[in-house]
Design goal:
Aspartate Aminotransferase, domain 1; alpha/beta; 4-stranded antiparallel β-sheet; 429 residues; 16 helices; 7-stranded mixed β-sheet
């Protein structure tokens, strides 16, 4: 007999007409495993009851959620369409072919591999396809916003390859391309990685390509954050410039948690073999189907409007935070990401995050391009999905400043946050 968790009684079952992101057969889970049902209900309420400003998160559409809960979750499908290691894959093949066709059309790529389980899995496969252990790689340094897969000593990348980190100009916070070129000439890397988890400006992919060609390096774009904007025409596309583009399918793209790789026809075979069988076994076919749904949604005019609103909202939020006294990295943003230093308000990034959490504002800390201090990183993808507008962004900035300055007023500020998000539920009925 299942044991009810302490969290379960606090989470009410779905009421008729109540906005939900729960499957139609949720009643079966509630009956069979109230402990986990309670956890899921509590998480639903957490997401709907606070400002979700983590730059790497979004709200997947109901259609994406339906695909994730589909019978394809039961199917083992090692290999690729038409060449599986298991029988009964005709519909798994159909789902993957649709996902590949939609991804290549959406991003203008010759080839797409939609099987990676995550963005990190996609980067691992790209390295496996192009590099050998010990090869030199240039990537954005971790203190400047580089990802763990860009050479962290605790990650496979830092253990298997010789990474050199490039950075940003300490005054402007912008990538220092002159120093990047000099570093590339000095180190002669096998690959250059362009991408970051907290760089709020567009990268100059053409210049990266020029530098890579000069030293005979592959160019890998780790575009996990901007690819959703690329899909909507709100950011430059790295596909025409990079040998390989790695991305996630959640974040701005609003798909399931997962990864993908785009490349030219000449590297297609190497990429596919690096994903399977080198770094992964069977694909998660329900997730592949959900990726296909997300790619289809991203090809619509409505999504294009959404992507441009995400950027417009980020710019309003950046300006509002600056007016509240935060030091905004690079003076603004071109993307969905805003990086701000709360030091002028007398606190560090971790303290700011704690005060904001107490007020119902959920976000990350991140490295800043100067010193050892940490700032806060926030994104506008999720709140834009909820239907918030530029006026709401200005209000969020004001709530943000109040929460950091007046920690004793956290409950009153949280009440204002709850009122704001109640008007914009993630999944309206």
């Amino acid at each position: 007999m299942p044991v009810t968790s302490p969290v379960a009684p606090a989470a009410a079952p779905p009421a008729p007409g109540r906005p939900d992101a729960l499957p139609q057969d949720f009643a079966a889970l509630l009956r069979e495993d109230p402990e986990i049902a309670g956890v899921l209900l509590a998480e639903r309420d957490r997401q709907a009851g606070a400002l979700q400003l983590i730059a790497a998160e979004n709200f997947a559409s109901p259609a994406v959620l339906a695909a994730l809960g589909s019978p394809l979750v039961n199917k083992y499908a090692e290999g690729y369409p038409g060449a599986r290691h298991h029988g009964g894959c005709e519909y798994a093949d159909a789902a993957e072919r649709v996902a590949v066709r939609r991804a290549t059309a959406l991003f203008g790529a010759d080839h797409a591999n939609v099987q990676p389980h995550s963005g990190s899995s996609a980067v691992l496969a790209a390295y496996a396809a192009l590099l050998r252990p010990g090869d030199t790689v240039l990537a954005m340094g971790l203190p400047y916003g580089g990802h763990l897969t860009h050479g962290s000593p605790g990650n496979f990348s830092g253990r298997w390859f010789d990474f050199a980190g490039y950075g940003v100009d300490p005054e402007t916070g912008l990538v220092d391309y002159a120093r990047l070129r000099a570093l590339a000439r000095a180190r002669r890397p096998k690959a250059i990685v362009c991408g970051s988890i907290s760089y709020p400006r567009h990268l100059d992919y053409a210049l990266f390509r020029e530098i890579a060609d000069e030293v005979g390096a592959y160019l890998i774009a780790d575009a996990a954050h901007p690819m959703g904007l690329v899909a909507g025409g709100a950011a430059p596309n790295p596909v025409p410039y990079a040998d390989v583009v790695c991305a996630t399918t959640h974040k701005v793209l609003r798909g399931p948690r997962g990864g993908m790789i785009l490349c030219g026809a000449e590297l297609a075979g190497r990429i596919d073999r690096a994903v399977f069988p080198f770094t992964q076994g069977g694909a998660q076919m329900h997730t592949v189907a959900a990726k296909a749904v997300a790619f289809g949604e991203a090809a619509t005019p409505a999504y294009t409007r959404y992507a441009h609103r995400v950027v417009a909202h980020a710019r309003v939020l950046a300006a509002g935070l600056e007016a509240e006294g935060f030091a905004v990295a690079t003076g603004g943003t071109d993307t969905h990401i805003v990086v701000a230093d709360p030091a002028p308000l007398g606190v560090d990034g971790r303290t700011a995050r704690e005060r904001l959490a107490a007020a119902g504002v959920v976000l990350d800390t991140c490295a800043l391009p100067h010193g050892e201090a940490r700032g806060v990183r926030l994104g506008t993808a999720a709140v834009t999905t909820q239907g918030m507008d530029e006026g709401d962004m200005a209000r969020i900035a004001a709530l943000f400043g109040a929460a950091v300055r007046r920690s004793g007023d956290a409950e009153a500020i949280a009440a204002e946050v709850r009122e704001l998000v109640a008007r914009h539920p993630p999944y309206p009925g």
